[in-house]
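quick one before i forget lol
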Amino acid sequence: MAPQDNPAFPGFAKFIDSVVSARHEDFVRRGLAGTTSADDFSAMVESISNLYAGVEVTHSFVDENGQVFDCVPIESQPALRGSFRAPATPPDAPDAAGPRGTGQGTPVQPQLRSDRLDKFGHAMSCPPGTIAMRRVTLEELTRSGGVQNFHRKYPQGKGRHPRLSPPEEAASGIHKYAHAFQGVDNLGGHDFVNLWDPNVGSEIFSLSQHWYAGGSPLQTVECGSQVYPAKYGTTQPVLFIYWTADGYQNTGCYNLDCSAFVQTNGAWAIGGTLGPVSVSGGAQYELEMSYYLTGGNWWLYLGGTSASNAVGYYPGSLFNGGQLASNAQDIDYGGEVVNNVAWPPMGSGAFAESGWQFAAYQRNVYYFATDNTSQFAKLTGVQSSPNCFTIVVGNAPDPWNEYFFFGGPGGGSCT
């Protein structure tokens, strides 16, 4: 029996059949529907059916945390399907702002490699000309509370940017931050994100990310590492991307969950687990991340800034002639956690003052100026709940350059 024929494996055809035949009353009986009404449930079935309409899956596999990925032709992914346009050609990003010295942490490698096999014996990689789409299920949509909430950065409420709300709201709200920003016209930026796996239990999520933002209503492109068990079904960090064109009100989605991001590089699984993770007092792991706006597209780079490191792009047309169609006005980096009673740890769970090998960091922070040169950032740190989360910004010789440590243990008194 071929691995893909294993009856225990959730094949794509079986998955689609289960979606179109799903009944609200069955989900209610199994305790999976939550507060979702029959009408909302029908909308979720339609949403998933549309996401995969006309998709030809060439290969599927399960990652170590049980998430299923389907390999689809690049031209069949949601952002290109039916458009009859070829994906853009990946460019090189501008040269680094300074010399590229030996890194402090071990580089995190792409998740998808042909030498890795899942528990069914499937190669954890996709054939040439295809990319891995994380499978979106009805169970995930019902956990989020419906289609609209599913596409928001935080289900059951609007998303936030660290500088979108006044300080008093940032201190008292469900979103807590320790971040560092600079107001400057830019075409994106770069740094190395130190990878940890903060313990998120009943709380919502904990992440470390980049924001490039501008305009009113706010527009952003975002990327980073996120622990979000309710979405991904794992307590391990995953690679995520996000965008909004209207201050998180009605536009935006994670990863490839809607028709937005165009992925061109099959080596990375967006929404897939990242690892290994750093060890307190021991080995440190980091992922080099960049966005660069060129040719009208916001290109994402992982593991370097050459064309071969380009993962894909957000088309500038998503921003409808708004600020991010031409450039961003703000670079922002750091941590965010979400809950409404007690907050999860951020970063490693240690305060910024713990420093190297104990606190999480981002280093070698620079931005791409509007003349397509690279400039080291000059960041201002903000810690809205310093009894729970702190940040320390610094500057040192290469390979640190502009950097910061950040994080903290969280808890129930994060005012």
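fyi The first helix runs from residue 12 to 20.
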